[in-house]
Hints:
This protein has 488 residues and is mostly helical. The protein is 47% helix and 5% strand. It has 19 helices and six strands. A two-stranded antiparallel sheet has the order 1-2. A hairpin with a 4-residue loop joins strand 3 and strand 4 (46-50). Helix 6 (234-254) runs antiparallel to helix 12 (342-353) and helix 13 (363-372) crosses helix 15.
Amino acid sequence: xxxxxxxxxxxxxxxxxxxxxxxxxxxxxxxxxxxxxxxxxxxxxxxxxxxxxxxxxxxxxxxxxxxxxxxxxxxxxxxxxxxxxxxxxxxxxxxxxxxxxxxxxxxxxxxxxxxxxxxxxxxxxxxxxxxxxxxxxxxxxxxxxxxxxxxxxxxxxxxxxxxxxxxxxxxxxxxxxxxxxxxxxxxxxxxxxxxxxxxxxxxxxxxxxxxxxxxxxxxxxxxxxxxxxxxxxxxxxxxxxxxxxxxxxxxxxxxxxxxxxxxxxxxxxxxxxxxxxxxxxxxxxxxxxxxxxxxxxxxxxxxxxxxxxxxxxxxxxxxxxxxxxxxxxxxxxxxxxxxxxxxxxxxxxxxxxxxxxxxxxxxxxxxxxxxxxxxxxxxxxxxxxxxxxxxxxxxxxxxxxxxxxxxxxxxxxxxxxxxxxxxxxxxxxxxxxxxxxxxxxxxxxxxxxxxxxxxxxxxxxxxxxxxxxxxxxxxxxxxxxxxxxxxx
Length: 488
């Protein structure tokens, strides 16, 4: 490459200064619009040779220069770019133009006399005339320290924190309310309670509710048959009375969370007596009966597995501690007999011993009494204490059967109780009572009008509901009363 550069530098120009031989010895003429051609590229500046006419000739003699050349390839441009960056570094001296390692570039006509500073190289690796290549500043080797961000508290964590305080407050308030409700043992005497009580007695006078047919009182042992083989001795009567009391206790234990019809089925299975006179429902038969057999006989009641265990355990206690009889007070029943609560104990005490030391609160009473304003209790024990505080003890004997039957008819036999109210001695008060316990008067009145009121007369024994007819005058009368109660 150096020999080629020297040959081109020492070659003589043509007479007109417009032609020159290249590295291969070929004479070429370069003209650009009659103004001149670019011939040499010096170390410090670039020169142009004027055109043919009137141009000054070049001074004779050899001079160090770099001839023009074709644009280098991409690989050579990268190499040249690295050499240029090294030349611009302050520690190294700028290399000579004649250095063979420097790839020459094609010079261009200067557009202005001013010098332009260019960062890096252009796309084709050519610098404008008078430009000085500037090496871009290398990136800083020291990394910038990132500021540590404080961890943000997520919304989920916030929502978790807040409800804890609220929940604690709610729990505290609930506990306070429960303490206040349980500490209140008395309730003021409700106004007009006697009128409501007597009206319900009138409506329940027929005793056709489910509890009247299959309740604990109805499921007790029937009187002994009048037979010549039966010994009318004091001992046999005593055995019968013990058995009757025991069966009453068992019927109450089976009635928990169970309808009366299902209790009646279970009691029928337990009372079943074989042809030889064995079995039946007594303390001894329960003790001798296998637990699986007992469980199968009471399959129709709810929670039969627990009730099977309780019945077996109660039979053992009655046989060991009470001579096959039941305790004489409700307090002893609650304390000594497993599976027997206050409701069962007070009812059994009333039926078996004729004593009323408390009121047995059924689920129907628990639903009806707060609506009547007779209590604000929410549990059977709270309601019992409230009602006992103002209801005279003379009413305690029939309060359970009376109001349980009324509640059953309001829920299960709506048309029957509705008809009884319309024909009672105080129909307007009866309608207001039904409205007070949230009975749908309008719907039941529409159903009643759609039925056929003219019924053929039949025997009363074949019907649980009274036979009655409704003419146009009575229909208009009842319609007026119902509208009055609904609008009041």
